[in-house]
Design a protein that fits this description.
Blueprint lengths: L3 H6 L32 E6 L5 H11 L5 E5 L2 E9 L17 E17 L5 E11 L4 E6 L5 E2 L4 E7 L4 E7 L4 E7 L10
Antiparallel strand pairs: 1-8, 2-4, 2-8, 3-4, 3-6, 3-7, 4-5, 5-6, 9-10
């Protein structure tokens, strides 16, 4: 039997159990939905100074005809960065509930991954996870808010892999009870999708 005194003498890494998330909806045995792209393009992009993360990714990729992509942000300075985290939903209605945006101010993105897809309204959507360091030296991680996070005074390098042949679109996921980017066959022009 482990006593409180025994637990207190263990290294911090062994004192806490990792969190367990319980999905509120019906179990889906298909854990990862995937589609194969018959082709893709690999592009090196530079996020332009002063632009929001959203504009710096969406505009140049749209000019290349890319609507869905996986990107790796190789690190760089943001003049301003907002992020949020996704703790378990206290109401248990969904698996997580995003926090309100947390202003990090001027920050250095150590590393990030952003996915480009389409939102429920069909408009471009950027979903970005990153590790950041604030001006105070605090390291944080979470979901970067692309529309309010602004690139600093130097371009930030990004590696892009286009996902040609299918789309990433936001759709409701019954198991987690949240909207998720999911691979789907492209909607052709003039097709009914209501």
């Amino acid at each position: 039997m482990t006593t409180a005194a025994d637990a207190a003498t263990r290294p911090a890494a062994f004192r806490h159990r990792p969190r367990t998330l319980v999905h509120p909806g019906p179990f889906n045995p298909v854990r990862i939905r995937s589609m194969c792209s018959p082709r893709s393009r690999h592009i090196r992009l530079a996020l332009q100074p002063g632009a929001t993360l959203y504009d710096a990714l969406v505009a140049p990729l749209a000019a290349l005809g890319i609507e869905s992509a996986s990107t790796t942000l190789l690190g760089g300075a943001f003049a301003h960065l907002d992020y949020c985290v996704a703790p378990p939903d206290p109401s248990q209605a969904a698996v997580i509930a995003y926090t309100r945006p947390i202003p990090a101010g001027a920050a250095w993105m150590v590393f990030g991954n952003a996915t480009l897809g389409k939102g429920l309204d069909g408009a471009p959507l950027v979903h970005c996870h990153a590790a950041i360091r604030t001006d105070a030296g605090t390291v944080r991680g979470g979901h970067v808010i692309p529309s309010t996070s602004r690139v600093g005074d130097r371009p930030i390098p990004v590696l892009v892999t286009s996902l040609d042949g299918f789309e990433l679109r936001v759709a409701h996921d019954p198991e987690t009870n949240i909207a998720l980017l999911q691979p789907q066959a492209p909607i052709t022009a003039g097709a009914f999708h209501g």
